Each structure stands twice: as C-alpha cells, then as structure tokens.
Amino acid sequence: MTPILFVYAKGGPPLEYALPRIAAHAAVHVLALAPLPRVSEQVWLPQCASVTTAPPGEGVELVDLICSHARRVGAAAVLTLSEYAVVAVAHASLRLGLRGAGERVAGARDKRLMRRIWRDCGLPVPGFTEVHAPEDIARAFETLRRPLLLKAAWSAGSTAHLTVWNEQQAEEAWKTGRSVMEASSAQGYAELHAADEGVSDFLLEEIVTGQASDWFDGAGWGDYVSVEGIVADGRYHPLCITGRLPTVAPFTERASLAPAALPEASQRRIEEVSRAAVDALGLDTCATHTEIKLGAGGAMWLIETAARFGGVMTTRQVETVFGLDMIGMLVRQLLGRDVAYPERMLTEGEGAAGSLVVLAVDPEGRPWRELPAWDFEAVDWGALIAPGSRVELVREHSLAPGSPVPPYEEAGGANSMAALCFLSAGSGPQLLADCGRILAALPKALTTTSPERSATSADPSTPGSTA
C-alpha cells in the first residue's frame, strides 16, 4: 500500500478509532512526538507499518524532523489529527511538495490572525484586542464592551480562558493564563511549531450573548455549533453540523452531540457563514472544524476555525449518525484519490451520538462538594441511560480506575477532564435526556472503591459499555 506518515501529538480522536481508518487506505508510519497511549495499544499497533518516537523540537527543527522521516518511509502524504502539530505538518508538506493545509495555515491556528482576517473580510466576529503588553489591556477596556474574555491565542479545549471585568483582573488573569499555558506545554498540550508564542500570546475579546432557544427545536442545547468539513485542493466541503450542551464557565465544552436539532433553513444559514469563514482563510487541503455562536434574532458570530477535525469523538459521532468516515475521506484526498463528497452539507442523520466530558461540576456548573475516585465500572450506567442507548469509556482520554477526579479549574478548561464517554441513542432527544441524567447522577454514582477494587474492577484493555 501507499505509505503515509502520521504525526502523533496530544489531542485529536483516540488512536484506536483513528488508525484503522487511516490504515484502510495507506500503510501507516507513525512519528510520535508524545508518549503513545499504551492502554489501547493492542488495537492501534497492528495497524502500523512502523512506529518511531522522537522529541519534537520546534520551528524549523520540527519541520526538518517530519520531512526527514517522511522521506525515509517514502510517504506520499503527511497527516496529523492534533491541533498542536497542524502548523508543523503543513510546513513540512509544503517543503515536500505534498498536499496539506498550505502556507496560510497559521490563520486557522493563531486566533489573533484568524480574527483579523475575518474582520477585514467583513465577517461577524466579537470585538477584540491583541495583548502584548499592559497598555494593550488598558486599550481593550477603553474600546470594548465588558466583561471581556482573556483567551490564549494558540490554546485548545478552552485552556487559559478567563472572564475579566476590569484592568486589574485582566492583568492578574494574564499572569494566570501564561502559567496555565506553561503547565499545559509541559504536559504536551501546546503548540509545537512555535512553543514560545504558544505560551505568551493572548487576546481580549467581547463576550457575545448567545440565545439557543431562538435556534433549536427543544430545550437543553448550548448556544453554539460546529460545522465539520474538509477543504480539498482549495475547495471547501461542509459535511454536517454538530451541537453542544451548555458550556461550563467560562466556556469549557461539556458534550458534543450529533445531529444538532436545527431546522434545515437554519442549518443552511450556518453552512454559508462557515463557507465564508473557511474560504477567507485560504486553506489548501485539510480537515476543518468551524465553531459559530448563535444569538438572538438569527445573529451569528464566528468563534474559530481549526485546520483539523473536531476533538474528542467528533469523527466517530459523524460516522455513526451521518455515515461519513471523515478520516478516511481526508486520507484519500491527501493521496490524490477520488473522494465522494455530498453535493450539499448533510442536515439529517440516523440516530444520535455524543461525546460527554466528565468534569467535577454539576449540571449548573457548580463544583462537586466531594471528589471521588474515577471508576467507570462502579457506575450503574443502565439506570442512567434509556433502553437502547449505549455508553462506552474512551480509554485514551480517561483517568485510570481509582484515580481521584481532579477539581474543575476555569483557567484549565479541558485539562480538568477526568474521563470521556461516548454515547449513542436512537434519537437526539433521547441522547439529550441520557446526558442530563448522567450529569445529575455524578458524582454520587461513583462509589468509593477499595484499593483492591481500583486495581481489578476495570480492565483498561476492554472498553466498558452498557446496552
């Protein structure tokens, strides 16, 4: 089979889901820039033609590493599913003369550049100011409507996002944000191509008000959506929309759900805003994940576009509900093969699927009073989900059984995650209800386990599921 180099870094869909879909179309050579998930090794390792681990370096050094390894294995394409390696892989693909996100990839990574591009094109974005020095903070409060959101320009998963009401709070938040980004970087959750900028670059932006009830059929939905898609040789193909549960303060994602309960006319409006946003970025060939805030009276604001697929289990949700293997489609596109894209974005699917993040907060966002040990097998899932629904533990994104659930920290965002669960149900309303019951039941549903049970209750090589 044709060789492809897969550059692994933190983030993205789990390898036990992703690698079989890559290997169906190419011989997969893995270049690992972060420790590989051993908990699922028996699933993903047989899919690999070779596996090489290497310290990532940064900038030109990292691009050199990727190019050298791609030439060594004769790769016809280079692919990553991690937010943190997107820029480096794009630059390596350019140097190698291979398909990739292209020379303008930074516009889909640096939130400051992204917003400048959209603003200059007349697209709807919240007011913002880049933060390089304390005087930038003062200017932001002179020109923008408070409260403001301090946001790390290169972050993912709502890391280093803090709400501030005045200059003093903003200056303290800026210090906190840099500390959080430094800690995230030490754990591998930071930009690899521009490590220094990834830690120090920030912006302040206005917090626009969403109004989910003006958009969705039924209650319980968050006030923003994502359009999942692929850019193929410069042509954007929006594929479907995924919805959300309401976020945890400030804006940490709690669950991604498909399909989104939106009338088709609303989905088509969102599709066109997404098309304008992606087209403005000038990407070549890559996945896209475009987040859009939904306001009252049909108002929309662009949050961000990433040159990769949505995180957690978004790709599996789309395959389950819409029948699209987006990873396989992108691999074929990168290899120059035919890909069957829908003529228009799909607005209806079959059944429902979601990724539920376990955070130590209740349904209203209040911190848990007690922090029990995490143990998937200790929960009576059958009592929490409807007949016909299923829940599985995503092992690569979950703590080991017996680990204490970490306290939720606003600045840490998704870094506070204890576990990730994948749910499927017969319908969207059923899935929403399942998520609601689970969130209401935790943490009481987690029993305090003995050391003996913690060591034996859940075999990490077998994903838990309940029918």
Automatic annotation (TrEMBL):
Q: Which UniProt keywords apply?
A: ATP-binding, Ligase, Nucleotide-binding
Q: Kindly give the InterPro entries that the UniProt entry links to this protein.
A: ATP-dep_AA_Ligase, ATP-grasp
Q: Does the keyword Ligase apply?
A: yes
Q: Which Gene3D superfamilies match?
A: ATP-grasp fold, B domain
Q: Which residues cross the membrane?
A: none
> Is Ion transport among this UniProt entry's keywords?
no
Spell out the PROSITE patterns in the cross-references.
Answer: ATP_GRASP
Region Disordered, as annotated, extends over 447-467
The segment(s) forming the ATP-grasp domain are: 115-335
Q: What is this protein called?
A: ATP-grasp domain-containing protein
